[in-house]
Amino acid sequence: MGALERFKVQGLSVASRKFIESFLSQKTKSLLTAGPSCAIFRENLRGGVTPPPRPFIFMRVLLISPNIETLPDPVAPLGVAFLSAALKSAGHEVHCLDLCFAEEFGTAVGKSVSDFSPEIIALSLRNIDNVAYPKSVSYLPFYKGVVECCRHVSAAPIFLGGSGFTLMPGPILNLLQADAGIAGEGEEAFSRVLAAIAGNSSSPIEGLVRKDQEHSVAPACIQNLDSLPSPDWDGLDLGQYFRRGGMGNLQTRRGCPFSCVYCTYPLIEGKAVRLRSAQKVAAEAEFLVQKGIENAFIVDNIFNFPETHAREVCQAFIERKIALRWSCYVHPTYFSRPLAEDMKRAGCTGIELGTDSGSPAVLVKLGKNFTPEDIRRATRIAQEEGLEVCHSLALGAPGETEETLEETFRLMEQISPTAVIAMVGLRIFPGTGLAYLAEAEGIIPSSSTLLDPVFYISPAVKDRVVEMAKRRAALHPNWILPGLSINVSLRIQSKLRKIGVKGPLWEHMKIMRERRPAKREPHA
After folding, report:
1. How far is residue 240 from each of residues 74, 181, 292, 389, 406, measured CA to CA in Å?
2. Using CA of residue 499, residue 326, residue 323, residue 346, what is the dihedral sign?
3. Residue 428 burial (CB < 10 Å; 0-12/13-18/19+)?
4. Chain-wide mean pLDDT for the chain?
């Protein structure tokens, strides 16, 4: 049975079936093109004419979250919740399938397709691997299995999206053999795709990616975030995430104006910072509390830039007396005592800093716009205001030597944070400054897709950094090394959750430190 005949079974109109057949065909010319300056419809290549205007057609859309990583915690799919809300507000019928807790994904997919009969299937790819060295794990084979399963049980077109997809849209689309995808923010763009498929629109679609297209695509970007409806959690089991992972999710802003050489946030969200209404965020926090969620993580790449907006969010929480404990990422330069006071009053329990290094020279190489003194000051303020503190480190970064590693270790000793999350090496992603550096140094060829995890480790410490990291973790029980499975495992997670620990597990590393005294470092 051909594509057109299969779609007849699903009851779509003739115009829609013709459009979809053309959409799926690899033999057609560029029916769809990407970028804001290009028209989506060239023509209906089968009939030679554009489908005539007609009443708006609503579609049945199956949204799948195939992200099954549960370490350090399962993460509720906020992106899917935002997309679901946007599609429902446009009048479409949406069913969400979350595979995180599914016992067997094939059975879950088959049941959803059988019960819902979707006309469109979309997968949201949050990450493509665990970005951990040396125990790196790619999620792409699993995603491919999900796509193949969807193909087996449904004739519906399959779209991809999400932050992971946005990093390498062309290669991932071709690898997984989906039909198309949206790079960037999909709430508006995917709604336009559905309107186009239904024959109700011929406007350009920003971020649309097709298989085998030769040009790159600028990610879709939504300027007015307050135009979006609040996340739709109805089709997702928030209670399960709270029981298993201890947290819900909130977002107050998008975009990253900074220039860290390895960071993908500017590629995914753009460099322009766009803010969400503090009152809207507070209302979403209240909704989480009403659903029985007691802890949340604010997923912004940096919560406290600009600081004025962060304080507005805190004030909205305080005014509404929201009983929610939460944590977030902060930038040390913009972390003031008044902000820390507001955060504490608003329910914040801890902050995470992307410190990366304690060496001034390495911080410069990484494109950081802060110094070790900024790190000390921000940590001191947080600790004095009763906030737990976690520092993330990148051991083996550009310019790293054994001397700079020792600078980092000494800084952590001096500031004594609640926890340290140390990653060995930096995962290289295309389009980042680190990728250009790695290519210049001969670490990766210019033709590399980087679909498989590749890590930058400074040549000066490549043979020693893993051993140095292990030794440091042995001396300090509050150090977490994900790539070496040190102080992070399903066993530890299960134990802490069983005794009622909620929120980020790193906030409770002081328990580990108190129960297991640190070993003394031998004298040189």
Report:
1. 10, 29, 11, 27, 42
2. positive
3. buried
4. 87
Strand bridging mode 274-275 / 253-254 = antiparallel
For 458, the token pair is 């400074």
How many C-beta atoms lie closer than 10 Å to residue 152's C-beta? 11
Amino acid at 324: L
The dihedral through the CA atoms of 12, 157, 93, 202 has a sign that is negative
Question: What is the C-alpha to C-alpha distance for residues 413 and 427, in angstroms, rounded to an integer?
Answer: 26
What region, left, alpha or beta, does residue 386 occupy, with left being phi > 0 and alpha being psi -120 to 50 degrees? left
Q: What's the full length of the chain, in residues?
A: 524
> In sequence order, what are the residues at sequence separation of 6 or more whose Cβ sits closer than 8 angstroms to the Cβ of residue 75?
67, 69, 126, 241, 245, 249
Q: Which residues contact 221 (CB under 8 A, 6 or more apart)?
A: 184, 185, 206, 269, 270, 272
Q: How are beta strands 120-124 and 158-161 bridged, if at all?
A: parallel
Q: Tell me the domain boundaries of the chain.
A: 3-210, 237-514
Burial of 500 (0-12, 13-18, 19+ CB in 10 A): exposed
Give the architecture (CATH level 2) of 3-210.
3-Layer(aba) Sandwich (3.40)
- Residue 398 and residue 261: Cα distance in Å, rounded? 10
Predicted local distance difference test score (pLDDT) of residue 215: 77
* Fold match flag (3-210 vs 237-514): no
Q: What is the CA radius of gyration of the chain?
A: 24
Given this model, what pLDDT does residue 523 score? 39
pLDDT at 16 over 90: no
pLDDT of residue 56: 61
SS3 per-residue string spanning 153-194:
HCCCCEEEECHHHHHCHHHHHHHHCCCEEECECHHHHHHHHH
Where is pLDDT greater, at 312 or 494? 312
* C-beta of residue 264 within 8 angstroms of C-beta of residue 432: yes
Residue 510 confidence class, pLDDT cut points 50, 70, 90: low
Q: For residue 83, what are the contacts with CB-CB under 8 A and spacing of at least 6?
A: 63, 122, 124, 161, 186, 187, 190
Q: How far apart are CA 179 and CA 509, in angstroms?
A: 45
pLDDT, position 474:
94
pLDDT higher than 60, residue 258? yes
Q: Give yes or no for a contact between 393 and 426, defined as CB atoms under 8 angstroms apart.
A: no
Question: Any bridge partners for residue 420, and if so which?
Answer: 391, 479
pLDDT, tens only, 117-141: 999 999 999 999 999 999 999 999 9
Q: How far apart are CA 352 and CA 37, in angstroms?
A: 40
Q: Do β-strands 388-395 and 348-356 pair in parallel, antiparallel, or remain unpaired?
A: parallel
Contact 339, 327 (CB under 8 A): no
Contact 253, 278 (CB under 8 A): no
Q: Locate tokens 């965020």: which residue?
A: 281
Q: What is the dihedral of CA 188, 189, 190, 192, to 10 degrees?
A: 90
Second CATH level (architecture) for the domain 237-514: Alpha-Beta Horseshoe (3.80)
